[in-house]
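User: Peptide ABC transporter permease. Structure?
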Amino acid sequence: MASIADHPTPASRRNSFWRHFRYVLASNPVTAVAFALFMMFVTAALFGPWLVPYDPLATDGASALQPPSWSHWFGTDHLGRDVFSRVVVATRLDLSISVAAVALSFAAGSALGSLAGYYGGWTDRVVGRCLDTIMAFPLFVLAMGIVAAAGNTIENVIYATALINLPFYARMARAEVNVRRESGFVQAAKLSGNSDLRVLAMHIFPNSLPPMMVQISLNMGWAILNAAGLSFIGLGVRPPTPEWGIMVAEGANFIVSGEWWLALFPGAALMLAVFTFNLLGDGLRDLVDPLRRT
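Assistant: Predicted structure:
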C-alpha cells in the first residue's frame, strides 16, 4: 500500500511547477524572451496609470504636434496629449478586451467541442452546424455587424470577439476528445466508477490542453487586432479613451503632413503585443503538456 509520503503535497506540486517553468525557459530562449515581453505588457497594464509622466487625457494646445523629445518621448498629438502616456495606459484596455474575449471563447468553445467529441450523435451534429454557420461569415465582418447592431460598447466588442473565436476552440476540443475517448486510460477511469462528465473533465480534457494553449496564445493576438480594427473604423472604443486602434486611426490623418509619430508608436505597440503572443504559444504548450514534465 502506498504511504502518505508517496502522494504529492500542494507545496511539492508548486515546486514541481516552478522547476518545470524554469526548465521550459532555459530550454527555449525564444520562449524566455516572449515571457519577458509578456510581463512587460502586464506591468504596463497593471501599473501604467501610475508610471506615466502625464495624464493621458490632459490637453495642452501650446504643446500640440510636438515631435519626440526628452520631455515627450513619443511626441504629442493634435490636442497636446502625451503619446507615450496614452500608449502605456492603453495597454490595460487592450489586454483586458483580449483576455476577456479569449477566456469567454475558450470556456464556451472547449465545453461545446468536448461534449460534441465525447458524445457524438445529435450533439455533434447540432454543435457542428452552429460552428459552420459562424464560420460561413468573414469573421471580422461578423464582428462589425454584431457591434453595429448591439451597440458601440466595450462589452459588445468583447462578446463579438469571443463569438468569432469560439469555433477555433470548439473544433480543436472536439478533435482532441474524439481521438482520446476510447483510450485505455479513459476505459480505466470508467471502470473505476467515474461518471462520463468526470471522465471528460478530469481525464480527457487535461490531455487535450497542450495544443489548445497555442491556439489561446494566437487568439490573444488576434483579439487585440480585432479590437484595434473595430476602433480604427469607429465601431470599437470611443475617443478620448486611450486605445491603440483609435490612436492609429487619429495618427493616420497626420502622416501626410509629417507627424509620423502619432501612428508609428501605437502601431508599434500593437505589433509588439501580437508578436509576443505569437511567440508565447509554444511555451504555454510546453508548460501544460504532461509528457514534457520532468
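Residues 83-119 form the longest helix (37 residues). Residues 47-57+71-292 form a domain with the MetI-like fold fold (CATH 1.10.3720.10).
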